[in-house]
Specification:
Layout lengths: L15 H8 L13 H24 L5 H23 L12 H7 L12 E3 L3 H4 L14 E3 L32 H22 L119 H5 L1 H12 L3 H14 L4 H18 L2 H14 L7 H17 L3 H14 L4 H13 L3 H14 L4 H13 L3 H14 L7 H13 L5 H10 L22 E2 L1 H4 L2 H9 L1 H13 L6 E2 L5 E3 L2 E8 L2 E2 L1 H6 L1 H7 L3 H4 L5 E7 L3 E6 L6 E9 L5 E5 L2 E3 L6 E4 L5 E5 L5 E9 L5 H6 L4
Antiparallel strand pairs: 1-2, 3-13, 4-6, 5-9, 6-7, 6-8, 8-15, 9-14, 10-13, 10-15, 11-12, 11-14
Helix pairs in contact: 8-9, 8-10, 9-10, 10-11, 11-12, 12-13, 13-14, 14-15, 15-16, 16-17, 17-18, 18-19
Length: 742
Amino acid sequence: MASRKSSRGAGGSPSPGSKRETKHGGGKNGKKEGLSGSSFFTWFMVIALLGVWTSVAVVWFELVDYEEVLAKAKDFRYNLSEVLQGKLGMYDADGDGDFDVEDAKVLLGIKHNQDAERPQYLLATMGQHLILESEEPGGVAKKKTKVKGLKERSVPAQPPSPDSEETAQPAEKSYVKSEFKSADIDLEDGIQSVLHEALHSPPVSYEYDVEVEKTVSYPEAPGDSELMLEDAMEHFIEDRVHDDYSEDHAVEDLPEEVNEATEPDQIIEDFDTGKELPVESKLREDVGPEPEQSETRVQAEDYSNDDRVAKKKKPKLLNKFDKTIKAELDAAEKLRKKGKVEEALRAFEALVNQYPQSPRARYGKAQSEDDLAEKMRSNEMLQKAINTYDEVVTLPNVPSDLIKLSLKREADRQQFLGRMRGSLITLQKLVQLFPSDTSFKNDLGVGYLLIGDNSNAKKVYEEVLSISPNDGFAKVHYGFILKAENKIAESIPYLKEGLESGDPGTNDGRFYFHLGDALQRMGDEEAYKWYELGYQRGHFASVWQRSLYNVKGLKAQPWWTARETGYTELVKSLEKSWKIIRDEGLAVMDKKRSLFLPEDENLREKGDWSQFTLWQQGRKNENACKSVPKTCALLERFPEATGCRRGQIKYSIMHPGTHVWPHTGPTNCRLRMHLGLVIPKEGCKIRCAQDNRTWEEGKVLIFDDSFEHEVWQDAETYRLIFIVDVWHPELTAQERRTLPAI
């Protein structure tokens, strides 16, 4: 091979190759030197541009699935947690199923293990005191449970999702302040939030229609005297509709009034009663949901100031046996939390079959059935969940926290199906098991109210207040009962102090309404302060429009014209046939046995006021129509009236010396027509919001009775009018078909 040429030519001048080499960084000794400034800049720009275009390509062509990356990272975290749980269970010193700071204190000798010192309860005694309804299974077997003395108060609105067993556990004592914090603290917080949510959610609902032995006396607001028994019950909470899963409804049922005006539903705060209030509501509905959703009035509660809520304490949902199968339980629970309800149910069923003595597996099965019932909208599946919740507490060695969660959810689901008496028995069981927990007594009081047993409810709340005088939940309900007994002055301090407490379960529109109504009846202008506060907190559409069951977006004004309603044909027919309607009404009045029934909703300050009803909640009273056949035949042509399931059609007679308290109707879904039949020349008037009107014979007045209204009859003779409720003209056909009756 030829030898390499010298870097210099024979004449000593540099060769071209040498020049190129030197130019690009070659040295005289043949070694490369650093890049020149211009070359470095060039390569830097090339790399930068490549990076930019690569980033653009990744985003534009979606080369990376970021959601998948995040999901894998999350799964890695869960898998790490499961590994730690499996390996470090031996360090559990306090029996709660995981290793935490409390366990570390015990292991280090800083804290004494007190589990062995906690009192035990034998649950077998429950079977001797409770007789369950036929559809609800299960006596209660003997078992010992640890009493945790939690101070929480209310029924879970959703099935508790116990992450309670998914806490990472450190392998060594030295991890207590480091690895434990990083690997376990988030899951621990999740566990604590589960029990907090389940035990502190607003109290059991009372807005369901139920077949009970007597009408409910829990006064949502004055209702119609002829209200059907099964329609007299309300659901109290949040987003649930009593009609179980059999029908889809746009709104919830609510007892209505027997009055020509309507019931009072009211609230307020720091309101200047001297200034003029706007009479038109700019909101269609601040209180209810969209059409085809349940109308709920209860806002989310703020528990941050509830001094009765126990300090964060992890629920103990695993007994000793369940700790040995914790990994299997966690795997099934993970499916449920991911929304794979059918798979979760199969997993929990397999665990129940394999470990029939496992309370946590049985509870997971109940939760999965509960979730599946919601998904399928199946009453049958929900009943299975109720039965399984009940089975949980019959097993041996069930942790007290798990008993609480199971029974409270069972009671809640029973109410959802309208099984109020079964729910009452479940709540009684809770009170017997945990007699020192006033929250269960509060729930029991609500259970009595749901079946119309105000007397026993009153006793329960008196007992609670004797133990815990500052219990706001007990105060508002006790004041509510006193007002229902017409003990107006006595009810005010309880309602006021209960609302001012801010306790969970007190921030409800009905309590604001009843306090404002009581103050109005006592002549106290402070009523409008509470109405204003209720409006500010979203319970009312406006200070004047205080109905609680509403559809959003409907036009809101106190007074209407026939043209504005679009029901001109109905108005013309009523006015054209007013004498026929009058004469048939007078004939009924002249009968020895009057068909007119006294108003019995406590809306009168004084006087005599009676009504004769032809249609109620869209149902025709066939017997009543036999007495006024021409009037009923006329109305049959107008389905906007006869089909209005949130209203009535009736005669109303009011005698001299009568005054009807200011009040509001229950819903913004209807308008009310008054046809004058026998009207004294002077002395009779009606106020709606801030505008007074008088009736004329043969003429129709139209107003929205969801606004506050008041009536005076100071004439020398009686006043007779004909009342026709119609759907609000802006409701869709679908809403008219699906809105539950009031």
